[in-house]
Please model this.
Amino acid sequence: MTLDQFLNLPGSPTAEEFGKRCTPPISGASISRIRRGEQNITRETIIAIINASGGIVSAEGLVRAA
Model:
């Protein structure tokens, strides 16, 4: 699943809330750019997003959006 699909699920957090769940935290603006494929992301960021989503967002979904 892509980050955009995950954040569009009913009851999903806002980009800002989701970014705060990541370790290390990611700004809401960066989460918004990542979900639109407008920001390059590091391996560390990919892992942080996957972990914060409970494994629902996939590495493939993050790379495909880029």
User: Anything to note?
Assistant: The chain has one domain: 3-65. The chain has five helices and no strands. The chain has a mean pLDDT of 94.
